Task: inverse folding
């Protein structure tokens, strides 16, 4: 048995993109135990939503929970509020919500992939991936008006329509992106040095993923078929627009890269199907009701299952709003995934988890 | 959502009888402050269609200690630690200092008296 060392990483560290703190216990360079703390960015958003804002304003507040998956938060909140108001939104609004969620998934997955490349020591690939990602940000700005934190989903529907010229632009930009995605797939799949850093590293088994209740690409990379898009059809008709489950088996950093890349192809297909089959109709269902009772909603954000619980008391202000972000579900798996790996692999493993502490701590 | 009432005495027995890792996943714990009492909730979801959400709940006095379910649901420690910090309640074998700094005194989601 070698000498054991405790190595703190974070809250500010060059390999960390988010303010979290890990304390690794290492022996002969191998990580044998990990402690995690996430207490750096709690903003009291749940409290603000139940005390300072009216329920219709809350969708704009939860859009600030996270810069990356803002549309997932505003959509999940709008859905839970619509359940409390007992209203059904127009089909066109459902399709437009799905369109923005998938555009958002493209930019979020490419961001994660670029950081895995950077943390694996492949800066040229980081820059290439970020360069290719730019189109998705521009499209989101064209559709929603903002590059991040788009207040697109509102209670009852969506705030903007999709103009025909923007729809044409999305189709043509996706066509341009396809060969770029093929190129990225080839590099992440076959590059020898990247494989050395990513294959067999930070692995989680399917059994562990089940026991630790993992969600999102983290779980699917281990072979666990969990994706809210495959599970619920009542609020957003994912299968109608061509959703297909993607899973891998190895559960390592490489598999997480593959999951995200393969999901980009699925997202592109969904977006094309949405634009080609976009129903005509209203954008919003109006109501003067107040939220009453309690309801829950699950939605597949780029990092996995997002869960909202809301309780209304027939007033303008909610009684309680609970937000469970995907990274929150994956914390236990993140701690487990380091075990037995070399300390030097930790940066790539962390990036492959795609943690979002802004969502987790709220 | 299916809501199942339980009690602190029966909580672990009820959840152990329900929870099968290959059939359900544990999502999160929640608490609703009702003034003198508090509703504590444990949310699960089925993997199989129709992927029903099941909520176990119990009404407690906020001073009572809640049993930990981490020997049944391994990952529950994260949700338990969050609730201890944000609601300022006691959960078996759970210290403060996960989502808020350890010396943060009151639960920010508790209603002001």
Result:
């Amino acid at each position: 048995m070698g000498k054991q060392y405790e190595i703190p990483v974070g809250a500010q560290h060059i390999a960390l993109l988010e303010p979290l703190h890990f304390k690794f216990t290492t022996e002969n360079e191998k990580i044998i135990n990990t402690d995690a703390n996430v207490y750096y960015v709690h903003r009291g958003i749940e409290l603000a939503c139940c005390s300072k804002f009216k329920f219709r304003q809350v969708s704009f507040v939860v859009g600030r929970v996270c810069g990356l998956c803002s549309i997932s938060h505003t959509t999940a909140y709008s859905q839970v509020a619509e359940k409390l108001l007992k209203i059904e939104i127009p089909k066109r609004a459902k399709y437009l919500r799905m369109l923005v969620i998938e555009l958002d998934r493209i930019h979020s997955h490419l961001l994660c992939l670029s950081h895995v490349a950077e943390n694996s020591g492949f800066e040229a690939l980081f820059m290439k991936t970020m360069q290719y990602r730019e189109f998705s940000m521009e499209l989101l700005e064209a559709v929603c008006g903002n590059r991040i934190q788009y207040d697109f989903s509102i209670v009852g529907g969506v705030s903007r329509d999709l103009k025909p010229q923007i729809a044409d632009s999305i189709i043509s930009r996706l066509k341009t992106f396809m060969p770029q995605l093929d190129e990225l797939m080839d590099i992440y799949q076959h590059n020898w040095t990247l494989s050395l850093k990513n294959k067999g590293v930070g692995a989680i088994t399917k059994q562990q993923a089940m026991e630790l209740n993992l969600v999102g690409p983290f779980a699917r990379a281990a072979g666990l078929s969990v994706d809210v898009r495959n599970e619920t059809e009542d609020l957003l008709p994912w299968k109608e627009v061509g959703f297909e489950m993607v899973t891998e088996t190895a559960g390592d950093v490489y598999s997480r890269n593959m999951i995200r890349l393969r999901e980009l192809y699925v997202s592109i297909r969904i977006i094309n199907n949405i634009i080609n089959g976009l129903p005509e109709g209203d954008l919003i269902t109006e109501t003067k009701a107040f939220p009453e009772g309690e309801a829950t909603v699950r939605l597949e954000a780029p990092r996995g299952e997002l869960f909202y619980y809301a309780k209304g008391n027939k007033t303008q202000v909610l009684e309680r709003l609970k937000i469970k972000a995907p990274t929150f579900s994956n914390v236990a798996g993140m701690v487990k995934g380091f075990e037995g790996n070399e300390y030097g692999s930790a940066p790539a493993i962390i990036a492959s988890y795609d943690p979002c502490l802004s969502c987790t701590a709220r | 959502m299916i809501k199942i009432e339980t009690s602190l005495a029966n909580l672990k027995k009820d959840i152990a009888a329900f929870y099968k890792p290959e059939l359900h996943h544990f999502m999160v714990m929640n608490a609703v402050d009702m003034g003198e009492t508090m509703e504590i909730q444990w949310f699960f979801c089925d993997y199989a269609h129709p992927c029903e959400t099941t909520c176990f709940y119990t009404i407690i006095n906020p001073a009572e200690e809640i049993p930990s379910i981490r020997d049944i649901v391994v990952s529950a420690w994260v949700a338990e630690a969050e609730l201890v910090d944000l609601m300022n309640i006691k959960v078996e074998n759970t210290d403060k200092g996960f989502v808020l700094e350890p010396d943060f005194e009151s639960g920010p989601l508790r209603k002001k008296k």
Observations:
- The interface with chain B takes residues 37-39, 42, 44, 46-47, 210-213, 215, 225-226, 231-232, 294-296, 298, 305, 307, 309, 311, 319-320, 322, 324, 328-329, 331-333, 360-361 of chain A (CB under 8 Å).
- The mean pLDDT of chain A is 89.
- Residues 4-361 of chain A form a domain with the Cytochrome-c3 Hydrogenase; chain B fold (CATH 1.10.645.10).
- Chain A has one domain: 4-361.
